[in-house]
Specification:
Blueprint (H helix, E strand, L loop, with lengths): L1 H5 L19 H22 L1 H8 L5 H22 L10 H22 L5 H7 L3 H13 L5 H21 L8 H21 L5 H11 L1 H14 L6 H29 L1 H6 L4 H13 L7 H22 L1
Helix pairs in contact: 2-12, 2-14, 3-12, 4-5, 4-10, 4-11, 4-12, 5-9, 5-10, 6-14, 7-9, 8-15, 9-12, 10-12
């Protein structure tokens, strides 16, 4: 009887020793790493947008380029939606999709393309470097997220580096295209915030896809009118630029970006974009032959430090 009582009863659940149990944060670590990598891939993809747009403007007018960009991306996304037999989103999601469409699909591409008629890609990239802080503010207001003070301190520091670099590069004065760029900041931050929120209830590529489908009639009409009034001079650069901003920046970039934001949060993902202006400076030098300021390496190091601090502060809070 004594020996039997020492045996484990049939209904008893054996508890593993503490050292053998998985760490509570272990299941969450993998999605966080994956989300960070996806968001970083989105940043790299977006960093090629301005140089590709400059190439596209060699063949198309600004209105034609924007309309064709979204139109081609909509066709690509629509094909995936049909192939996957994806159901139409619920009614309550369409308002958010309209914000994504207006901010990311139409507003940001149009305003930045208009800006690039008078601004260099390197200058535009640095001004848009304020997007991470703008997105973090929008996210906090829209979702009620409250990142720690250390996060905001590092985010503001990163934005300050970007502003200082912008002023230095422009000789202390803002260009005429900066008004378009500042408008692009606001509409894009709103689109990113709403898209990141929607990506928690539907896959990121579906957020992008339905936003593009929503603008399809507008882009069809826009392309038909713009192509009549704006001359087209087809060239290798122009075609490559159009294909990239459509398939790369608009489709692939937004897909991985929204998926990354869904896994690590809008505010934390947005700060990874602090590296985007510096990556664009590299592409502008490598692909377009634009001169890069000597202060760029210093700004790059400072921005990377700020990114690391925002990511650490976010992990500490979570």
């Amino acid at each position: 009887m004594r020996a039997e009582s020492s045996a484990t009863a049939p209904n008893t659940i054996a508890v593993a020793p503490a050292e053998d149990r998985p760490h509570p944060s272990a299941p969450a670590a993998a999605p966080a790493r994956r989300g960070t990598l996806l968001a970083l891939l989105g940043v790299v993809t977006f960093s090629l947008t301005f140089p590709s747009t400059a190439w596209g403007l060699e063949s198309f007018g600004p209105w034609s380029l924007v309309a064709l960009r979204s139109l081609l991306a909509a066709v690509l996304s629509g094909g995936f939606l049909l192939a996957g037999r994806v159901r139409v989103p619920a009614r309550e999601h369409w308002a958010g999709l309209a914000v994504v469409a207006g901010g990311v699909v139409v507003g940001f591409p149009l305003l930045t393309t208009l800006a690039l008629r008078t601004s260099t890609t390197s200058h535009a990239a640095v001004v848009v470097g304020l997007l991470p802080l703008t997105t973090a503010v929008f996210s906090s207001l829209r979702t009620g997220a409250r990142p720690p003070r250390a996060f905001w301190a590092a985010a503001v520091a990163g934005a300050a580096v970007v502003i200082a670099f912008t002023v230095t590069q422009s000789g202390g004065a803002l260009s005429a295209g900066d008004l378009f760029l500042f408008g692009a900041l606001l509409v894009c931050a709103a689109g990113y915030t709403e898209g990141g929120r929607l990506a928690k209830v539907m896959p990121g590529w579906q957020v992008t896809g339905w936003a593009l489908i929503l603008t399809l009639p507008l882009n069809l009409a826009g392309a038909a009118v713009a192509l009549v009034y704006e001359p087209v001079r087809l060239g290798v650069h122009g075609v490559v630029g159009l294909v990239w901003v459509a398939a790369g920046s608009t489709f692939l970039g937004l897909y991985v970006w929204y998926r990354g934001m869904a896994e690590i949060g809008v505010a934390r993902a947005s700060q990874l974009q602090l590296a985007q202006p510096l990556l664009t400076l590299f592409w502008s030098f490598f692909l377009l032959g634009e001169e890069v300021a000597a202060a760029a390496p210093v700004a790059a190091v400072a921005v990377l430090v700020c990114i690391a601090l925002t990511q650490r502060a976010s992990r500490t809070r979570s």
